[in-house]
Amino acid sequence: MILQYTGLRHLYASIGVLVKADPKALQVLMGHKDISITLNIYADAQDELKEQNAEKIEDYILSLTSESASQDMDELFSKIQELDIYSLEEKEVINYTNEIKRLAIIPKIEKEVKELILKISNLDKDTTTDDTQARLELVYSLLSNMEHLKDQTRDLKRDTNKCNDDYKYIFNYLQTAQYLVKSMSRATEYKVVKKPAKVTKFAINY
């Protein structure tokens, strides 16, 4: 039986690491007739886990030098927010993309996005329907662009499918970063729009 699902492959690979099983034991566990199938799956899963851990370590190291790294990232994102990206030359787009890839601290950005979503999700009972819809759209923008930025950063760092040579992909990465930064800025400045206060009638006795 050849395991086709990445999640299962990772599960069995993790079991192999945890119990320090030899290839033969893993072969029996995974139900493979040929030991080469086991070794190939195990090696592929191990390589992917190593890549993921390397990215986490890189992000962690960046966060340790957080003040300077975070300041550099904030300054870069502040510039990107104001860019007219459609008027940039190809070389400029590539330069900005490389800077985002180098300076973006994904865990820090994710944390900020989560905090902003919590902030704008606290609906007041007097909030208007239009305001509720605006909040939902903003939450969706934050979530979707955060996921895109995370995936694209990973792909560019790994050069998945040679995406560093694909100008359309690179431009889309810069576009995603700008969309996310603008959404975060809107969420930071968000003001609750309330219904007009009701006028209460009362009697006055003379």
Tell me what the structure shows.
By secondary structure, the protein is mainly α. The chain folds into two domains: 59 residues, no CATH class; 123 residues. Helices cover 73% and strands 0% of the residues. The longest helix has 30 residues. The protein starts with 5 loop residues before the first helix and ends in an 18-residue tail after the last helix.
Radius of gyration: 24 Å
Q: How is the quaternary structure best described?
A: single chain
Report on the biggest sheet: none
CA-based shape: extended
User: Tally of extended strands?
Assistant: 0
What is shown here, in short?
The protein has helices spanning 6-19, 23-30, 35-64, 66-82, 90-103, 106-121, 129-158, 167-188. It is mainly α and 206 residues long.
Spell out the key features of this protein.
2 domains; 0% strand; extended; 206 residues; mainly alpha
How are the SSEs placed, and which strands pair?
Elements: H1 6-19, H2 23-30, H3 35-64, H4 66-82, H5 90-103, H6 106-121, H7 129-158, H8 167-188
Helix pairs in contact: 1-3, 2-3, 3-4, 4-5, 4-8, 5-8, 6-7, 7-8
